[in-house]
Design goal:
The complex is a heterotrimer. By secondary structure, chain A is mainly α. Chain A has six helices and two strands; from the N terminus they run H-H-H-E-E-H-H-H. In chain A, strands 1-2 form a two-stranded antiparallel sheet. In chain B, helix 2 runs antiparallel to helix 4, helix 2 packs across helix 13 and helix 4 runs antiparallel to helix 14. Classes of the chains: A mainly alpha, B mainly alpha, C alpha+beta. Strand 1 of chain A pairs antiparallel with strand 1 of chain C, so a sheet runs across the interface.
Chain lengths: ~150, ~375, ~260
């Protein structure tokens, strides 16, 4: 091999550098994420296992069907109709993005930007403090789950 | 051949590092734009396309102009262009890269750019623009690199390159036609709604591109032993002349249609650009300068004595480049948006961050051109064909 | 084996490996099982949605902006003071700006002070849909020109194409400018284009568009243009109406009674 004196130490240095995250965190493990589940509601749109694995795919299909196909009701695997809306359905029960959504997302370093547009549940309360005119009462009368 | 780019004179390294530094400054401002949004530019609800799209339009023209050397040399065996074509193709590569970069910085949701590929839309001109621009980049890379590689090896380029070279000729016309079609099919914009848009684009491209190529050749000549030959330079000057005359003639046609027909909607934008509308006059001095420069250049280029004066020619090329750049790179886009569809006027001038990002992109393009030209020169020197 | 053959073999092997993993990924992509959807309950449908705005009624209430306030509140449209960056889905204009091809200097006083509510015309042949490179703006079967905010790349080609100036772009983050957000509707983020979507989220659940509902004087009527017996067609038969820039062939669905 040409330049073996440079190549082999270089390869070893590369392997060491690339595996730094493993051997510097040896013996330590980040605690398992524990998202805070809603208190009053026991059943989600689908089962816990399904949602854990597939909620992103479900939401992606929902947004395609709602926006582009004008479909609004999802029939879940138990035959129950569900309103296909992150803000008006999911956030009814999951009332804290920080304590639920962010817990797992931060753990796996996933950064979905849904909340840039879809108003997170905490911010609903923060924004809806001002007085609203009469004709909008019907529109914003549905309160998040904790008010029921 | 890439190793030729890594070794050079001190001046070469200085240029490379300077252009790299300017690019990084532009990149810093682009990060600021990503954080704040496109509101950091001078664009508005009424003038929703501005400096970036204008530079893109101008540079598509420069990229297309490589065909003005490729066509005579490869299709008609015009041997005098033998040493020029590679520089034309490499200029095209730099120009198309800049076009793509200008599009990237103009997009509102940059990380969604891939959507254009994921959701092909055959009825949208932007879809075809994406195809032809990227295709043109690929073709020029293949043709330019293979041809140069042939010189590097001391042989002719391989036969399989010939179809790509032939393809690049109509493809060059197509990239600028498709770009013109972006504008010429919009029902609400009377300044752009003209059949003459595509021919005007091509005419303007075929004078500005070769003029820029000539200027770059002169610069290369000044710093190396490279000389494309007086015949080649004179021939290219003729191309620039005729293209510039066509460009000015087509503009004259536009003036006639708008003002002889008397239709207000067709006149407003031209009035805004050249006389101002309701006191809004930001672009008036720019447009008159552009056309003055182009007219002076046209007259001097038509006269053989001045056109063939190889000492004066670079100055004429500078006039052409500046004139066409203002015309396309400042007047064309903004003119289409003024007045707006409700006949209100919002003026536009690029902001400092916008200009810095644009300069950064120009630096990136010229860096690519510098490196490619350096490779070409070094290869030609090493084979003694300089 | 010489170096060239080794590199060639390694290249092929990695390409084959890439292809294999991609194929496995595509084939094993588990789709959501048992997926069934249907339109909203009591959804309002039409063959072609249309709107008639009776500007004679608006004339009697010059200060009224209830439709604009309602729309902009329900849809979280930000109020940005900088005119260059303003976002509006529905707004008022004078005759000469709403109908620049029809206005002239001998306009009667009747129309001089008349204010017209301008919004997306939901054209039959929308130029914006024609030019959108990702189909982020698309025409529904019921004639509504819809926006898919998830797909919009913010190229603003639609804004250049719209002959009516109906579209706005988010030049910056709109949220700091939303005074009183409606928690039932999302906001938008910077870098996407927005416009009136004919309240598809209202129609889906049996409610009329917010502007039509909010008008206390019944100036805005919405209905099915393709139904010869609909109220809107009756109004169109009985009144002289204008549409904007008809000569462009876009086929607007918004009519103005003058």
């Amino acid at each position: 091999m040409y330049d073996a004196g440079k190549v082999i130490p270089g390869l070893i240095a590369f392997v060491v550098l690339v595996t730094v995250p493993f051997w510097t965190n040896f013996g330590k493990a980040a605690p398992e994420p524990k998202p805070e589940l809603p208190k009053e509601y026991k059943k989600c749109v689908e089962s816990k296992d399904f949602m854990r694995r597939e909620h992103m795919k479900l939401l992606r299909k929902w947004r395609f069907d709602v926006v582009r196909k004008n479909m609004r009701i999802y029939i879940n695997s138990e035959g129950q109709p569900v309103n296909m809306s992150l803000q008006n359905e999911c956030f009814r029960c999951h009332t804290s993005k920080k304590k639920f959504c962010d817990v797992c997302h931060d753990y796996v370093a996933a950064h979905p930007y849904c909340w840039n547009c879809h108003i997170p549940p905490e911010e609903k309360k923060g924004w809806a403090t001002k007085e609203v005119k009469n004709w909008t009462d019907e529109v914003s009368s549905e309160q998040p789950a904790s008010h029921h | 051949m890439l190793e030729k780019a890594l070794v050079g004179s001190k001046k070469y390294y200085a240029l490379v590092f300077f252009l790299g530094a300017v690019f990084l400054v532009g990149f810093y401002f682009f990060l600021k734009q990503l954080a704040f949004g496109l509101g950091i530019t001078g664009m508005s609800r009424d003038v929703s396309w501005g400096f970036y799209v204008a530079q893109f339009t101008y540079l598509v023209g420069v990229a297309a102009s490589a065909v003005m050397v490729v066509l005579p040399y490869y299709l008609h065996n015009y041997k005098d262009y033998g040493k020029m074509t590679i520089f034309g193709e490499f200029l095209a590569i730099g120009a198309v890269t800049m076009c793509l970069l200008f599009i990237v910085v103009d997009i509102g949701q940059t990380h969604r750019l891939f959507n254009v590929l994921l959701h092909p839309t055959p009825h949208s001109m932007l879809f075809y623009d994406m195809i032809v621009l990227n295709g043109y980049l690929l073709i020029n890379l293949i043709c330019g690199w293979s041809a140069l590689h042939g010189v590097y090896k001391g042989t002719k380029y391989p036969d399989w390159v010939k179809p790509f070279i032939y393809l690049s000729i109509p493809w060059a016309f197509s990239i600028h036609t498709v770009t013109a079609f972006l504008y010429a099919g919009l029902p609400g914009r009377h300044f752009w709604l003209t059949a003459v848009m595509a021919p005007r684009f091509l005419a303007s491209a075929f004078c500005s591109g070769p003029a820029l190529l000539l200027l770059l050749i002169y610069i290369v000549k000044a710093f190396t032993r490279f000389d494309p030959g007086e015949k080649a330079i004179r021939a290219l000057a003729k191309t620039i002349t005729y293209a510039l005359l066509a460009n000015l003639f087509l503009f004259g046609c536009e003036l006639f249609t708008s003002f002889y027909s008397g239709i207000p909607g067709h006149q407003f934008s031209i009035k805004y650009l050249f006389a101002g509308l309701h006191g809004h006059m930001k672009l008036v001095p720019w447009m008159w300068t552009a056309y003055a420069l182009m007219l002076v250049a046209a007259v001097l280029l038509v006269i053989p004595k001045t056109r063939n004066n190889l000492g004066l020619l670079p100055l004429l090329c500078i006039l052409v480049v500046i004139g066409t750049w203002i015309d396309k790179g400042m007047g064309l886009i903004v003119g289409g948006f003024v007045p707006n569809p409700l006949e209100r006027i919002t003026e536009y001038m690029p902001t400092f961050p916008e200009v810095m990002i644009s300069i950064g992109i120009y630096a990136a393009g010229f860096l690519i051109i510098t490196v490619l030209y350096k490779i070409a020169i070094s290869v030609m020197e090493s084979r003694g064909v300089i | 084996m010489d170096r060239r053959s080794f590199l060639r073999a390694a290249g092929f092997a990695s390409l084959a490996g890439l292809w294999a993993s991609a194929t496995v990924g595509v084939l094993s992509k588990r789709e959501v099982k048992a997926y069934a959807v249907r339109p909203g309950d009591k959804a309002l449908t039409a063959g072609r949605w249309g709107m008639v705005i009776d500007t004679r009624v608006c004339k009697d209430h010059p200060e009224c902006e209830k439709c604009i306030e309602a729309c902009h509140h329900v849809h979280n449209v930000p109020h940005i003071p900088n005119k260059r960056h303003e976002i509006k889905w529905i707004w008022k204009e004078e005759f000469e700006h709403a109908f620049p091809d029809t206005a002239h200097e001998y306009l009667n006083e009747y129309l001089h002070d008349r204010e017209f509510l301008l919004l997306c015309n939901h054209c039959e042949h929308p130029p914006c849909v024609r030019v959108c490179p990702t189909q982020a703006t698309f025409k529904r079967e019921d004639g509504i020109v819809m926006m898919d905010m998830h797909r919009c790349i913010g190229c603003r080609f639609c804004m250049a194409a719209c002959p009516y100036g109906s579209r706005s772009f988010n030049w910056r983050d709109p949220r700091p400018f939303i005074k009183d957000p409606n928690p039932e509707y999302p906001t938008r983020m910077k870098g996407v284009v927005e416009k009136c979507t004919f309240c598809t989220e209202q129609l889906a659940f049996g409610k009329l568009p917010v502007c039509a509902e909010a008008c206390p004087y019944g100036a805005i009527k919405v209905g099915d243009l393709s139904d010869p017996h609909s109220e809107i067609n009756q109004i169109l038969r009985e009144n002289f109406t204008l549409r904007r820039k008809v000569h462009l062939g876009t086929g607007p669905s918004v009519f103005y009674i003058v």
